[in-house]
Design goal:
This protein is globular. A 5-stranded mixed β-sheet has the order 2-1-3-10-4, sandwiched between helices. Strands 7-6-8-5-9 form a 5-stranded mixed β-sheet, with helices on both faces. Strands 11-12-13 form a 3-stranded antiparallel β-sheet, with helices on one face. By secondary structure, it is an alpha/beta fold. The relative contact order is 0.15. Strand 6, helix 5 and strand 7 form a beta-alpha-beta unit. It is built from 11 helices and 13 strands. It folds into 3 domains: about 110 residues, Periplasmic binding protein-like II (D-Maltodextrin-Binding Protein, domain 2); about 120 residues, D-Maltodextrin-Binding Protein, domain 2; about 70 residues, Porphobilinogen deaminase, C-terminal domain (Double Stranded RNA Binding Domain), CATH 3.30.160.40. The structure holds ligand PBG. Ligand PBG binds next to strand 8 and helix 7. The site of the ligand NCc1[nH]cc(CCC(=O)O)c1CC(=O)O has 10 residues, from strand 8 and helix 7. It catalyses: 4 porphobilinogen + H2O = hydroxymethylbilane + 4 NH4(+).
Length: about 325
């Protein structure tokens, strides 16, 4: 089977992770997407699916048989002719603050992010200045190392997959190669943050501080992958089925159905995280970040779609709070 992938290091790692887990021989085919070709801020490009449309086109025209997306990059509208054949087990869904070595983040620290969701939540929690930023993970880390900002906010899953944090277990990319020292993000180089304590962040080993969902709710489906193939391609559907992880699929479904319901009713940046319980339930927490409106809703895990829709209605009913 031919597996189409973006050429960024993160996309290649994710695609290889999927390829290695399939029982059939797989050839990786690199594809350049619109999102990779421009530095214009994502929210100004306007179109949804800047990273994913080219992959889906290659799939539909038969150039490739399988594509792997970061699930959070996928538009919520279903694509005719394409099925989500597998949603593998989710990596750590949290965002993390990545700190420059030798720099003491204190009040007024410059935090780089291009995401309104991250910007609103980090400003709400800490006395920091947000600097707009784009580019893939490698580019951003270089800007941090250059001193353009004091810290970044990035998805922990991406950092783990790129081998930039100490990870373990058999999750996507957590076994990937090193690279942290090249970018100056080694554990040893970040120590004794008086300023960090003042920010109430606590300490962490590697200059990578996970942000708890109580402070920063991730993007819907962050940390999860979506593996797609053509709807009629039974060979691919069969080959991909063993990779599916139903609890992850349910969580991503709840988070994305919330997002889809909100897109009809508001344009606020949305954070959302669903957590499966031990009793067959699913708890979805979400925030409209620019209004600081937050709520949670629990239901049977098989009703993932409805949990998302119900919580969207609840959020839209709530008054903004400061
Ligand atoms: N928006 C780009 C993007 N898409 C997926 C990830 C990280 C991996 C993931 O969330 O699955 C990232 C980078 C980031 O947000 O830090």
């Amino acid at each position: 089977m031919r597996l189409g992938t973006r050429r960024s290091r993160l996309a290649m790692v994710q695609s290889r992770w999927v390829a290695e887990r399939l029982a059939v021989p797989v050839e990786l085919v690199g594809i350049t997407t619109a999102g990779d070709r421009t530095d214009v801020p994502i929210e100004r490009i306007g179109a949804t699916g800047v990273f994913t449309a080219a992959l889906r086109e290659a799939l539909l025209c038969g150039e490739v048989d399988v594509v792997v997306h970061s699930y959070k990059d996928l538009p919520t509208a279903p694509m005719p002719g394409i099925v989500t054949a597998a949603v593998p087990e989710r990596a750590d869904p949290r965002d993390a603050l990545v700190l420059r070595p030798g720099r003491v983040p204190a009040a007024g620290a410059r935090v780089g992010t291009g995401s309104p969701r991250r910007a609103c939540q980090v400003r709400q929690a800490y006395d920091v200045v947000v600097a707009p930023m784009r580019g893939n993970v490698d580019t951003r880390l270089r800007k941090l190392a250059d001193g353009q900002v004091d810290a970044l906010i990035l998805a922990l899953a991406g950092l783990n997959r790129l081998g930039l944090t100490a990870g373990n277990g058999d999750r996507p990319g957590e076994t990937a190669g090193k690279g942290g020292d090249r970018l100056g993000l080694r554990a040893a180089s970040i120590r004794a943050h008086g300023g960090l304590d003042r920010l109430g962040l606590g300490l962490s080993s590697a200059g990578v501080l996970p942000l708890e969902p109580a402070i920063m709710l991730p993007a819907p489906a962050q940390g999860a992958l979506a593996v797609e193939c053509r709807a009629g391609d039974l060979r691919a559907i069969d080959a991909l089925a063993p990779l599916d992880h139903p609890p992850t699929r349910a969580a991503a479904t709840a988070e994305r159905s919330l997002l889809a319901a909100l897109q009809a009713g508001c344009t606020a940046p949305v954070g959302a995280l669903a957590t499966p319980g031990e009793d067959g339930t699913l708890t979805l927490e979400a925030v409209l970040a620019d209004r600081n409106v937050r709520a949670a809703h629990t239901g049977p895990i098989e009703d993932a779609c409805r949990i998302g829709r119900d919580l969207a209605a609840l959020l839209l009913d709530k008054e903004p709070s400061r």
